[in-house]
Amino acid sequence: VKKIALLLKANMQRMFWENDRYKNQSIQVKVTNKNISSDVNNVNTRNIKAKNNTQVVGKPNVDNSLVLGTVTVSDGSFTAKAKNDIKTGAVQAKNDVSLLSTEGAVTNNKSVTSSAGNISINAQKDITNNGVIKADKEIRLTAAEGNINSASATGVYLDAGASLTLQAEKGDVGSADSALRIRNNKNVPINVTARNAWLQGVANTSGTDTNNMTLGAVRFANGFTAESEGNIVSGTGSDAYLDAGTQITLQAEKVS
Fold this sequence. Notes:
Elements: E1 3-7, E2 14-17, E3 26-30, E4 36-40, E5 45-50, E6 54-58, E7 66-73, E8 78-82, E9 86-93, E10 97-101, E11 106-114, E12 119-123, E13 127-129, E14 132-135, E15 138-143, E16 148-150, E17 157-160, E18 163-173, E19 180-183, E20 189-202, E21 212-220, E22 223-228, E23 231-234, E24 241-244, E25 247-251, E26 254-255
Parallel strand pairs: 1-3, 2-4, 3-5, 4-6, 5-7, 6-8, 7-9, 8-10, 9-11, 10-12, 11-13, 11-14, 12-15, 13-16, 14-17, 15-18, 18-20, 19-20, 20-21, 20-22, 21-23, 21-24, 22-25, 23-26
């Protein structure tokens, strides 16, 4: 069996996959009305189409990754939780998107988007972006004991509409060879806490003053490097500051 399609009736609130027989198969879920919460064995690919709030929880006794394929929640929020790694394809929700790996890493291989809400990604180990993570409001990435990384390819970036918060207190954000790519955005503060950080501001020419990398609360134990394809500006108010232990390097068309 290559694919299992489950159509949930309007009065069904919860479902379970517990048979290891389907461990290496893909599963499609289509939900038209009610909220859905599912406790699942991790499988290679999970495709979900839903209208309202949707939650997927990986079984704690399963060792392989929870892999999300195409996930579309047209009028609600989406949450995925797993003990081990979470890997995403194209995840899209109207409201909030939350990904939580309690003991593993989270990797976005295509896109994670929220058209009218926030995105929160929490991992015990690394968080890696190999595509686009875009939210209408806030993006918050927290790697408790790991790093926050991104591929250096064109078309890879974080894009927050209200604020971007990056927390890797025991690790680094980006690297000297591959800076974390962030789309420049007017008045969107970038708040970072890490040992070291390397940030790359990706050009944004969609409107007046949009091509600004705006630094908010920035704190590092060691060094900080930021390069922008536009400007680098400081946020306003007492919540905007730059605190690095050893070295600060800023490179842009204009720094203010």
